Structures are given as C-alpha cells and as structure tokens.
Amino acid sequence: MFKKMCLTALASLSLASIALNVPDHVTQLDSITAAEETTQAIVSKDHPIEVDKEAKVVYLAVQMNKKAMEEGSQHAVVDQEGGNGDVALLQSFVNPKDFYQALTDLGAEPGDNLTLDDLKEDKTVEGSPLEITISWEGQEEVALTDLFTSDNEGIAKSDFRFGGNLETNQELDTGCTICLYSCPVGIVSNAAVSTKDLDSLKVYADPEEFPEDGTIMTLKVQIKDSSESK
C-alpha cells in the first residue's frame, strides 16, 4: 500500500512539473498520441481549447457558420462572442487571448509587425509559422484552406503566422482568432495575402462539405520548425 501511495505521489509531482502556464480551463495533453486518441471527446463548447506541449499543438473546438460560408468572409476563425463572430467561416468558443497565451507558452514568437495603418499599405504578417488542419468525427485531418475557395491564390498557398496583435485584438474586441489575410488584429493570419487585399478578399466554403450545423470540429494549430517556413 505504501509503495502504491508513493508511486501515485511521484506521478502527481511529475505532471505538475510539466504543466504550462495556461488558464485553468485549458486542457493539457502529454503526447501527440494522447491527443489523437482523445481530442474528439475532450474538445467541446465546455472545453474549447487544449494543449499538447510535446507536439507543440493547440487544439480549438469550432463549428461552421453556414451564412458566412455562403456569403464569403476574410475571417477563418472568430470567437462567437466577439464583434466579428457572425461573419467568420468558423466560430470558436474561447477568447483569443487564451489562444495567444497557449501559443506563447509553447514557444511560438509573435510577429507584432502590423498596425491598423498598414491596412493602407502592402505588407505581410510575420511571426512563427503554423500549420492548421481540421477534423471531425468520421473525417481525418485536412488542411483548413483545402476546404475554402477564393479568387485570391494566397488562400490555396496559405502561410499562417503567429502575428500576435494581442493589445489591438483585446482593445477592439472583434474576437478575431485566425484571419485569412495579413491582419493587424487577428492572433494568427495568412502571410500569403497582403494587407492591401483586405477589401477585395472573399473566401467561401461549401457547407455540404462540413458536418451538420452545430457539430463540434477540432482545429489543430501546430508550430512549424522555422526551417519549414515558405
């Protein structure tokens, strides 16, 4: 009995020692294998974000926004409670600041190179490169932008970066989490589309390619090695 109690205590200490500095509601996973086995069961509206420190992955629970998919948008993922929640292709359930914190805790470096004035210029977002995929029950991981269509070739050639922009993001309260152009507000955005393309950019998705409205899907955001940067 004593031996069992000691082992239990050691296991608890071990887990505590590797814990990341993330909010209490952010679930942490110890390996990519565990993530693959449990993601669908854990990510939900009640548990909207989880972190796999070894694989450098942040998972977000999202649902489709049929209206935005049909009308077109520049926003990939927005917190549904944010000002742009109704116009995003996908809606999440977590404040962007928690997403930002999770990425920084995993070692991602924010670019923080854009301001609102840059929307009049021809600039692109900087920061750690990221790979973004999506999956749901019965659907294996697929690159997020493979499900999107646009006249702008920068969508098919997406180059997602950890733009940062936390101060502006929280001040404007748009809920912008992942944008499809180089955005001075979104936490993550697409370096393959310039700031100057904002007004002309329209990205669509076919709701028929997604699960039933209201179904929770799993968005996987993985930090890429800088050598993999396009």
Quick structural gist:
Keywords: Signal. With 230 residues, the chain is α+β, with helices and mostly antiparallel strands.
What does this structure look like?
The chain is globular, with a radius of gyration of 18 Å. It is of the alpha+beta class. The strands form 3 sheets. Strands 1, 2, 3, 4, 5, 6, 7, 10 and 13 form a 9-stranded mixed sheet that branches. Strands 8-12 form a two-stranded antiparallel sheet.
Question: What descriptive keywords fit this protein?
Answer:
single chain; 230 residues; alpha+beta; two-stranded antiparallel ribbon; globular; disordered N terminus; 4Fe4S_Fe-S-bd; signal; YdjY-like
Which range best describes the helical content: under 10%, 10-25%, 25-40%, 40-55%, 55-70% or over 70%?
10-25%
Write down the secondary-structure element order.
HEHEEHEEHEEEHEHEEEE
Largest sheet: 9 strands, mixed
What are the low-pLDDT stretches, counting only 5+ consecutive residues below 50? 1-20, 30-40
| Total beta-strand segments | 13
Structural class: alpha+beta
Q: Estimate the mean pLDDT confidence.
A: 87
- The percent range for strand residues is 15-25%
Please tally the helical runs, counting DSSP H or I stretches of 4 or more residues: 6
| First and last CA, distance | 56 Å
Work out the radius of gyration.
18 Å
Number of domains: 1
Shape: globular
